[in-house]
Amino acid sequence: MRFIFRSLRTRSAQQRLIDIVSVLVLSAGAVIILIPFFWMISTALKQNGDVFLVPPQWIPDNPRWENFSDAYAQLKLDVYAFNTFFIVTAVMIGTLLSASFAAYGFARLQAPGRDTIFMLLLATLMLPGAVTLVPTYLMFNTIGWINTFLPLTIPAFFGSAYFVFLMRQFYITIPRELEESAMIDGASVYRIWWSIMLPLSGPVLATIAVFTFVGTYNDFFNPLIYLSDESKRTIAVALSYLSGSPRSVAKMNLMMAAVTLSIIPPILLFIGAQRYFVRGIVTTGIKG
After folding, report:
1. Which residues contact 224 (CB under 8 A, 6 or more apart)?
2. Engineered SS bond to 226: which of 72, 131, 151, 216, CB 3.0-4.6 Å?
3. What is the DSSP string of 27-93?
4. Which helix (H) or strand (E) holds 192?
Protein backbone atom coordinates (compact mmCIF):
# COMPACT_ATOMS: atom_id res chain seq x y z
CA MET A 1 0.00 0.00 0.00
CA ARG A 2 2.83 2.40 0.87
CA PHE A 3 4.43 1.65 -2.53
CA ILE A 4 1.17 2.52 -4.31
CA PHE A 5 0.88 5.90 -2.53
CA ARG A 6 4.51 6.68 -3.28
CA SER A 7 3.95 5.77 -6.95
CA LEU A 8 0.88 8.02 -7.13
CA ARG A 9 2.73 10.96 -5.56
CA THR A 10 5.63 10.47 -7.97
CA ARG A 11 3.31 10.29 -10.95
CA SER A 12 1.45 13.40 -9.81
CA ALA A 13 4.73 15.31 -9.39
CA GLN A 14 5.86 14.21 -12.83
CA GLN A 15 2.56 15.31 -14.36
CA ARG A 16 2.81 18.72 -12.70
CA LEU A 17 6.36 19.08 -13.99
CA ILE A 18 5.21 18.17 -17.51
CA ASP A 19 2.36 20.70 -17.28
CA ILE A 20 4.72 23.46 -16.10
CA VAL A 21 7.21 22.74 -18.89
CA SER A 22 4.38 22.67 -21.46
CA VAL A 23 3.06 26.03 -20.29
CA LEU A 24 6.54 27.57 -20.41
CA VAL A 25 7.23 26.23 -23.91
CA LEU A 26 3.83 27.39 -25.22
CA SER A 27 4.24 30.80 -23.60
CA ALA A 28 7.68 31.22 -25.16
CA GLY A 29 6.29 30.22 -28.54
CA ALA A 30 3.39 32.66 -28.19
CA VAL A 31 5.79 35.51 -27.35
CA ILE A 32 7.96 34.70 -30.37
CA ILE A 33 4.93 34.60 -32.67
CA LEU A 34 3.62 37.92 -31.31
CA ILE A 35 6.92 39.79 -31.72
CA PRO A 36 6.09 40.97 -35.31
CA PHE A 37 2.66 42.09 -34.08
CA PHE A 38 4.19 44.15 -31.27
CA TRP A 39 6.77 45.60 -33.65
CA MET A 40 4.02 46.62 -36.08
CA ILE A 41 2.14 48.52 -33.38
CA SER A 42 5.36 50.06 -32.07
CA THR A 43 6.33 51.27 -35.55
CA ALA A 44 2.82 52.62 -36.14
CA LEU A 45 3.23 54.92 -33.13
CA LYS A 46 6.75 56.18 -33.85
CA GLN A 47 7.95 59.50 -35.15
CA ASN A 48 9.40 59.72 -38.64
CA GLY A 49 13.01 59.44 -37.56
CA ASP A 50 12.60 56.71 -34.92
CA VAL A 51 11.77 53.76 -37.15
CA PHE A 52 15.31 52.57 -37.85
CA LEU A 53 17.00 53.48 -34.57
CA VAL A 54 19.75 51.14 -33.36
CA PRO A 55 19.15 49.58 -30.90
CA PRO A 56 15.45 49.31 -31.76
CA GLN A 57 13.01 51.30 -29.69
CA TRP A 58 10.08 49.07 -28.73
CA ILE A 59 8.14 51.67 -26.74
CA PRO A 60 8.10 55.12 -28.39
CA ASP A 61 8.92 58.02 -26.12
CA ASN A 62 6.26 60.21 -27.70
CA PRO A 63 3.63 58.03 -29.39
CA ARG A 64 2.32 59.68 -32.52
CA TRP A 65 -1.35 58.65 -32.71
CA GLU A 66 -1.81 60.98 -35.67
CA ASN A 67 -0.17 58.30 -37.83
CA PHE A 68 -3.47 56.43 -37.96
CA SER A 69 -5.50 59.40 -39.18
CA ASP A 70 -2.74 60.38 -41.63
CA ALA A 71 -2.58 56.85 -43.04
CA TYR A 72 -6.38 56.73 -43.28
CA ALA A 73 -6.50 59.99 -45.21
CA GLN A 74 -3.48 59.34 -47.43
CA LEU A 75 -4.52 55.80 -48.35
CA LYS A 76 -8.23 56.59 -48.81
CA LEU A 77 -9.09 53.62 -46.66
CA ASP A 78 -12.81 54.37 -46.77
CA VAL A 79 -12.97 53.78 -50.54
CA TYR A 80 -10.73 50.72 -50.50
CA ALA A 81 -12.50 49.32 -47.43
CA PHE A 82 -15.85 49.58 -49.23
CA ASN A 83 -14.45 47.76 -52.27
CA THR A 84 -12.88 45.08 -50.10
CA PHE A 85 -15.97 44.43 -48.01
CA PHE A 86 -18.18 44.32 -51.08
CA ILE A 87 -15.97 41.63 -52.61
CA VAL A 88 -15.60 39.76 -49.31
CA THR A 89 -19.36 39.76 -48.67
CA ALA A 90 -20.18 38.52 -52.18
CA VAL A 91 -17.52 35.81 -52.01
CA MET A 92 -18.67 34.65 -48.57
CA ILE A 93 -22.30 34.41 -49.66
CA GLY A 94 -21.40 32.57 -52.84
CA THR A 95 -19.01 30.20 -51.12
CA LEU A 96 -21.37 29.29 -48.29
CA LEU A 97 -24.33 28.68 -50.60
CA SER A 98 -22.46 26.77 -53.29
CA ALA A 99 -20.31 24.68 -50.95
CA SER A 100 -23.21 23.69 -48.70
CA PHE A 101 -25.51 22.89 -51.63
CA ALA A 102 -22.96 20.82 -53.54
CA ALA A 103 -21.81 19.05 -50.38
CA TYR A 104 -25.37 18.00 -49.57
CA GLY A 105 -25.63 16.34 -52.96
CA PHE A 106 -22.35 14.48 -52.49
CA ALA A 107 -23.24 13.43 -48.93
CA ARG A 108 -26.88 12.40 -49.25
CA LEU A 109 -28.16 12.12 -52.82
CA GLN A 110 -27.71 8.92 -54.80
CA ALA A 111 -26.64 9.38 -58.41
CA PRO A 112 -24.59 7.39 -60.94
CA GLY A 113 -20.91 8.37 -60.78
CA ARG A 114 -21.34 10.51 -57.68
CA ASP A 115 -18.19 9.29 -55.99
CA THR A 116 -16.18 9.58 -59.21
CA ILE A 117 -17.29 13.17 -59.68
CA PHE A 118 -16.38 13.90 -56.07
CA MET A 119 -12.89 12.45 -56.56
CA LEU A 120 -12.44 14.55 -59.70
CA LEU A 121 -13.49 17.61 -57.70
CA LEU A 122 -10.89 16.86 -55.05
CA ALA A 123 -8.27 16.31 -57.75
CA THR A 124 -8.62 19.97 -58.76
CA LEU A 125 -6.97 20.86 -55.44
CA MET A 126 -3.68 19.66 -56.92
CA LEU A 127 -3.81 22.23 -59.72
CA PRO A 128 -1.66 25.27 -58.88
CA GLY A 129 -3.20 28.64 -59.57
CA ALA A 130 -0.43 29.51 -62.05
CA VAL A 131 -1.65 26.76 -64.37
CA THR A 132 -5.17 28.18 -64.71
CA LEU A 133 -4.27 31.87 -64.51
CA VAL A 134 -3.73 32.58 -68.20
CA PRO A 135 -6.77 30.71 -69.60
CA THR A 136 -8.96 32.15 -66.85
CA TYR A 137 -7.77 35.68 -67.58
CA LEU A 138 -8.34 35.22 -71.32
CA MET A 139 -11.85 33.92 -70.68
CA PHE A 140 -12.77 36.87 -68.45
CA ASN A 141 -11.21 39.28 -70.93
CA THR A 142 -13.25 37.78 -73.78
CA ILE A 143 -16.55 38.28 -71.95
CA GLY A 144 -15.57 41.80 -70.84
CA TRP A 145 -15.18 41.22 -67.12
CA ILE A 146 -11.70 42.72 -66.74
CA ASN A 147 -11.54 45.79 -64.47
CA THR A 148 -14.80 44.77 -62.74
CA PHE A 149 -15.55 42.93 -59.53
CA LEU A 150 -17.14 40.04 -61.42
CA PRO A 151 -13.98 37.86 -61.81
CA LEU A 152 -13.41 38.20 -58.06
CA THR A 153 -16.96 37.36 -56.95
CA ILE A 154 -18.86 35.23 -59.50
CA PRO A 155 -16.52 32.16 -59.33
CA ALA A 156 -17.36 31.82 -55.63
CA PHE A 157 -20.93 30.87 -56.57
CA PHE A 158 -19.63 27.75 -58.34
CA GLY A 159 -18.11 26.15 -55.27
CA SER A 160 -14.68 25.45 -53.83
CA ALA A 161 -13.38 21.88 -53.70
CA TYR A 162 -11.87 22.24 -50.25
CA PHE A 163 -14.97 23.78 -48.68
CA VAL A 164 -17.25 21.26 -50.40
CA PHE A 165 -15.13 18.54 -48.82
CA LEU A 166 -15.44 20.14 -45.36
CA MET A 167 -19.21 20.48 -45.69
CA ARG A 168 -19.62 16.92 -46.95
CA GLN A 169 -17.68 15.53 -44.00
CA PHE A 170 -19.94 17.45 -41.63
CA TYR A 171 -23.17 16.40 -43.38
CA ILE A 172 -22.20 12.76 -43.03
CA THR A 173 -22.23 13.12 -39.23
CA ILE A 174 -25.87 14.33 -39.21
CA PRO A 175 -28.34 11.46 -38.52
CA ARG A 176 -30.40 10.46 -41.53
CA GLU A 177 -33.50 10.09 -39.35
CA LEU A 178 -33.95 13.86 -39.41
CA GLU A 179 -34.21 13.87 -43.20
CA GLU A 180 -36.44 10.81 -43.27
CA SER A 181 -38.86 12.47 -40.86
CA ALA A 182 -38.92 15.58 -43.04
CA MET A 183 -39.54 13.49 -46.16
CA ILE A 184 -42.50 11.80 -44.46
CA ASP A 185 -43.92 15.26 -43.79
CA GLY A 186 -43.57 16.07 -47.48
CA ALA A 187 -40.43 18.22 -47.44
CA SER A 188 -38.49 18.40 -50.69
CA VAL A 189 -34.73 17.97 -51.02
CA TYR A 190 -34.28 21.74 -51.24
CA ARG A 191 -36.42 22.32 -48.13
CA ILE A 192 -34.44 19.71 -46.19
CA TRP A 193 -31.17 21.36 -47.19
CA TRP A 194 -32.38 24.85 -46.31
CA SER A 195 -34.45 24.19 -43.18
CA ILE A 196 -32.64 21.23 -41.59
CA MET A 197 -29.08 20.84 -42.84
CA LEU A 198 -28.03 24.49 -42.87
CA PRO A 199 -29.29 25.33 -39.33
CA LEU A 200 -27.40 22.31 -37.99
CA SER A 201 -24.20 23.31 -39.81
CA GLY A 202 -23.33 26.39 -37.78
CA PRO A 203 -19.83 25.26 -36.75
CA VAL A 204 -18.64 24.27 -40.21
CA LEU A 205 -20.30 27.31 -41.81
CA ALA A 206 -18.45 29.54 -39.34
CA THR A 207 -15.19 27.76 -40.20
CA ILE A 208 -15.72 28.30 -43.91
CA ALA A 209 -16.76 31.91 -43.32
CA VAL A 210 -13.57 32.66 -41.38
CA PHE A 211 -11.34 30.99 -43.98
CA THR A 212 -13.14 32.74 -46.83
CA PHE A 213 -13.09 36.14 -45.15
CA VAL A 214 -9.39 36.02 -44.32
CA GLY A 215 -8.39 34.56 -47.69
CA THR A 216 -10.42 37.09 -49.71
CA TYR A 217 -9.58 40.03 -47.45
CA ASN A 218 -5.85 39.37 -47.77
CA ASP A 219 -5.95 38.45 -51.45
CA PHE A 220 -3.42 40.60 -53.28
CA PHE A 221 -2.77 38.78 -56.54
CA ASN A 222 -6.27 38.50 -58.05
CA PRO A 223 -7.31 42.14 -57.48
CA LEU A 224 -3.94 43.23 -58.85
CA ILE A 225 -4.49 41.17 -62.01
CA TYR A 226 -8.15 41.95 -62.72
CA LEU A 227 -8.55 45.52 -61.42
CA SER A 228 -6.76 48.48 -62.99
CA ASP A 229 -8.72 51.55 -61.83
CA GLU A 230 -7.47 53.15 -58.65
CA SER A 231 -11.04 53.61 -57.40
CA LYS A 232 -11.55 49.84 -57.47
CA ARG A 233 -8.48 48.81 -55.49
CA THR A 234 -8.78 46.65 -52.42
CA ILE A 235 -7.00 47.23 -49.12
CA ALA A 236 -4.38 44.57 -49.82
CA VAL A 237 -3.41 46.20 -53.13
CA ALA A 238 -3.56 49.74 -51.75
CA LEU A 239 -1.20 48.90 -48.89
CA SER A 240 1.52 48.00 -51.36
CA TYR A 241 1.60 51.61 -52.60
CA LEU A 242 2.62 52.79 -49.14
CA SER A 243 5.67 50.53 -48.95
CA GLY A 244 7.94 52.69 -51.09
CA SER A 245 11.65 52.20 -50.60
CA PRO A 246 12.88 49.83 -47.88
CA ARG A 247 14.54 52.87 -46.26
CA SER A 248 11.55 55.14 -46.71
CA VAL A 249 11.17 56.18 -43.07
CA ALA A 250 8.42 58.70 -43.79
CA LYS A 251 6.18 55.98 -45.19
CA MET A 252 7.12 53.06 -42.95
CA ASN A 253 5.27 54.33 -39.88
CA LEU A 254 2.23 55.24 -41.98
CA MET A 255 2.25 51.83 -43.63
CA MET A 256 2.34 50.08 -40.25
CA ALA A 257 -0.49 52.30 -39.03
CA ALA A 258 -2.53 51.38 -42.10
CA VAL A 259 -1.74 47.68 -41.64
CA THR A 260 -2.79 47.91 -37.99
CA LEU A 261 -6.12 49.38 -39.04
CA SER A 262 -6.57 46.78 -41.77
CA ILE A 263 -6.14 43.77 -39.48
CA ILE A 264 -8.88 44.85 -37.07
CA PRO A 265 -11.80 43.29 -39.05
CA PRO A 266 -10.23 39.80 -39.35
CA ILE A 267 -9.30 39.82 -35.67
CA LEU A 268 -12.82 40.81 -34.63
CA LEU A 269 -14.31 38.14 -36.90
CA PHE A 270 -12.07 35.43 -35.49
CA ILE A 271 -12.79 36.45 -31.89
CA GLY A 272 -16.54 36.44 -32.55
CA ALA A 273 -16.54 33.09 -34.38
CA GLN A 274 -13.74 31.39 -32.44
CA ARG A 275 -16.00 28.94 -30.61
CA TYR A 276 -17.74 27.81 -33.80
CA PHE A 277 -14.47 27.88 -35.74
CA VAL A 278 -12.70 25.45 -33.37
CA ARG A 279 -15.77 23.22 -33.17
CA GLY A 280 -16.03 23.11 -36.96
CA ILE A 281 -12.37 22.13 -37.36
CA VAL A 282 -12.85 19.28 -34.86
CA THR A 283 -16.12 17.91 -36.21
CA THR A 284 -15.53 18.02 -39.97
CA GLY A 285 -13.18 15.02 -39.89
CA ILE A 286 -15.05 12.75 -37.46
CA LYS A 287 -16.64 10.49 -40.03
CA GLY A 288 -15.63 9.75 -43.60
Report:
1. 237
2. 151
3. HHHHHHHHHHHHHHHHHHTS-GGGTT-SS--SS-SS--THHHHHHHHHHTHHHHHHHHHHHHHHHHH
4. helix 189-192
Per-position DSSP letters for 112-137, written without gaps between them:
TTHHHHHHHHHHGGGS-HHHHHHHHH
Matching CATH number, 67-283, of 3.10.450.50, 3.10.129.10, 1.10.3720.10, 1.20.1510.10: 1.10.3720.10
DSSP state of 241: T
| HSE value, Cβ hemisphere, 13 Å, CA-based, for 46 | 23
What is the DSSP-derived secondary structure letter of residue 107?
A: H
How far apart are alpha carbons 36 and 38 in whole angstroms?
A: 5
Nearest CA among 44, 49, 37 for reference residue 65: 44
Task: Give the start-to-end residue ranges of the domains of the chain.
Answer: 2-44, 67-283
CA gap 210, 75 in Å, rounded: 26
pLDDT in tens, the chain (288 residues): 554 445 545 557 778 888 888 889 999 998 898 888 888 888 888 887 777 777 777 888 788 888 888 888 877 788 888 999 999 999 999 999 999 999 999 988 888 888 899 999 989 888 888 888 889 999 999 999 999 999 999 999 998 899 999 899 889 888 888 888 888 888 888 888 888 888 888 888 888 988 999 899 989 999 999 998 888 889 888 887 766 544 444 477 888 888 888 888 888 887 877 776 665 555 544 444
